[in-house]
Specification:
22 helices; thiamine pyrophosphate; alpha/beta; EC 4.1.2.63; 6-stranded parallel β-sheet; about 575 residues; magnesium; single chain; lyase
Amino acid sequence: MADDSAATPPSIDGNTLVAKSLSHLGVTHMFGVVGIPVTSLATRAMALGIRFIAFHNEQSAGYAASAYGYLTGKPGILLTVSGPGCVHGLAGLSNAWANTWPMVMISGSCDQRDAGRGDFQELDQIEAVKAFSKLSEKARDVREIPNCVSRVLNRAGSGRPGGCYLDLPSDVLRQRIVESEADDLVAKVGTFNEHVTSARASEIESAVTLLRKAERPLIVFGKGAAYSRAEDELKKLVELTGIPFLPTPMGKGLLPDTHELSATAARSLAIGKCDVALVVGARLNWLLHFGEAPKWSKDVSFVLVDVSEEEIELRKPHLGIVGDAKTVVGLLNREIKDDPFCLGKTNPWVEAISKKARENGEKMEMQLAKDVVPFNFLTPMRIIRDAILAVEGPSPVVVSEGANTMDVGRSVLVQREPRTRLDAGTWGTMGVGLGYCIAAAVACPDRLVVAVEGDSGFGFSAMEVETLVRYNLPVVVIVFNNGGVYGGDRRSPEEISGPHKEDPAPTSFVPNAGYHKLIEAFGGKGYIVETPDELRSALSESFAARKPAVVNVIIDPFAGAESGRLQHKN
């Protein structure tokens, strides 16, 4: 019998071609939940050297993918099944959209010939993702896969970053193609970057003139500057000019919180009295009170630096500069270097900011110095701060979510390095905690990851502690357990009425819940603490071990308050 094998060239299916395309374009990590029709895609990707982190829930996997994009500057990849999996993944895609982080969601979908007939998990997924996707592509034939992959990856990270979507019908994933032809198609796709308008020389000159003539200038920077890796340029700008600076919550660490020109502890004075504000990589949204009075002076002149022309048109600043934060600040430094100016420590504005920051800092330290038991929020937060600062080597990545827990942590925890704080972000999203932890552990393998979570925030993604254990990630999750949202039952006697008055309050959880036992069920380390010494011991042991752990901190249920918007009283 003749051997026909030589006459039949080797072929691959669509799953392998997707994996080859991703690998060729530099993808090294994927996050997701597998099932029909994408299990083989994940397996093939792993075989090609892409690390696949498998989650329990697409929401958490999506949050991980979005944060990975922020931390690495490369689009985070989320893989989901069709229909409900795609819908669950929208949490992560919308988070990337809101925070302007690069991410690509890839979902399987039903056979094209069965579309519109009620197929298994059928959904018009292109339509479903429209509100949150910069670009949505559907591969309708196996040969379209490499170009589709290239387009969504490139669009996600170009211009203003954001989420993109790739739809892969199950019949396309099953289609086969001669391997040599597939390799040729993959080799032809490449990377490109959307053109970002370069700042004009006149704009740079005008911005420097405004700063030079200002009596009370302020530099504000946010996570857009962090994403741009603008820390060195911002440090040089601050030190060249002596202008006080104010980071947004996730801009913290671009310059150390301990820097002598930090206005964080004098925020109200800084934004209320400044006459010129250079805002770099931060939007004038609710986090910055929309740039409006009475929080800001009605006469303040904003110089807004943003990668998006649409953002500048929306905010209508005194001067808008479209461009990458790192590039624009570098141009400002060059312009200032030719004709330098510096406020100096004795400048009245600098003295006023420094004095107010020092006074508020001293007041905070007086409150923090007290050991309050049963725990309020300040005592354990101080102990956590000191433990994090004592970590040798690269600073840990701090993940913070919750109401009171995040608000207090924003004021107490100290960031010394860029991109070491992840929190609820622009959307104030709860449930990001464990996904962010996993993303940080994967993206920054040399750093310890410390989550400081409210018990409500932790509950959204608590099952992912099994994922921490399964991948043996260096993550310590600290849960502030005060028995519910804001702190258990806060109802007045008059509010406890009606036919269901015996039910728990809408804000209540089981008191003193054993959250630490959840990770123990999977082989991780759990701690329950109620005193300062117990907390110090748990943190010392878990930080040194760099193994998955949950520290369950019992908090007085009446220690917190309802929270939502930023409440700055300094």
